Amino acid sequence: MKTDRLRDTLRETHAADRRLARDFRAVSARNHEEVDVVRMCERLAAQCDHHAELLVPRGEHYGANLAAGDELPTTAADTEDPSVRLLRDLSALYLCVQESEIWWTLLGQGAKAARDQELIATVYACQMETGAQAHWVKGRLKEAAPQILLS
């Protein structure tokens, strides 16, 4: 059935944003000495949680029980040097944001094909915020890298 693929894409998008929220919180917790990182990561984690919540009713529409939410595996342990850890964490976070962003893109294409205006609106709003998340993470990487790599 055609909607099975859209249902599966809803699940993947939901899971990607849940992973991203978890990873933002993990970066925040491991880099508590970087106040701006903590503050922004907590804000972006809440944004990802909201994205996942927005998908729950559309998931029900397509037969995906997104409210149940399977447990996600935890992230890797700390590294020895806090500066290097920050670069590793932000790099991993950037990849996670990119994964989320591509799932939002795929879901948007499916929503358009299904002519689901409610899902299209949700995808548009969340996709814009995910793009802003990627921009912040990449910017913070660029800001931190020269100082960390040359110290």
| Class computed from helices, strands and strand pairing | mainly alpha
The third-level CATH topology is Ferritin
Terminal CA distance: 57 Å
Helical proportion, percent range: over 70%
Global mean pLDDT: 89
**Shape assignment:** elongated
Name of the CATH first level: Mainly Alpha
Question: What fraction strand?
Answer: under 5%
CATH architecture: Up-down Bundle
Number of strands: 0
Give the tally of structural domains. 1
Structure description:
By secondary structure, this protein is mainly alpha-helical. It has one domain (2-66, 79-149): Ferritin, core subunit, four-helix bundle (Ferritin), CATH 1.20.1260. Helices cover 81% and strands 0% of the residues. The chain contains four helices and no strands. The chain is elongated and about 55 Å long. Helix 1 runs antiparallel to helix 2, helix 2 packs antiparallel against helix 4 and helix 3 packs antiparallel against helix 4 (117-149).
Features:
elongated, Ferritin, 151 residues, mainly alpha
What would you say about this model in short?
The chain is mainly α and 151 residues long.
Topology:
Elements: H1 2-30, H2 35-61, H3 82-114, H4 117-149
Helix pairs in contact: 1-2, 1-3, 2-4, 3-4
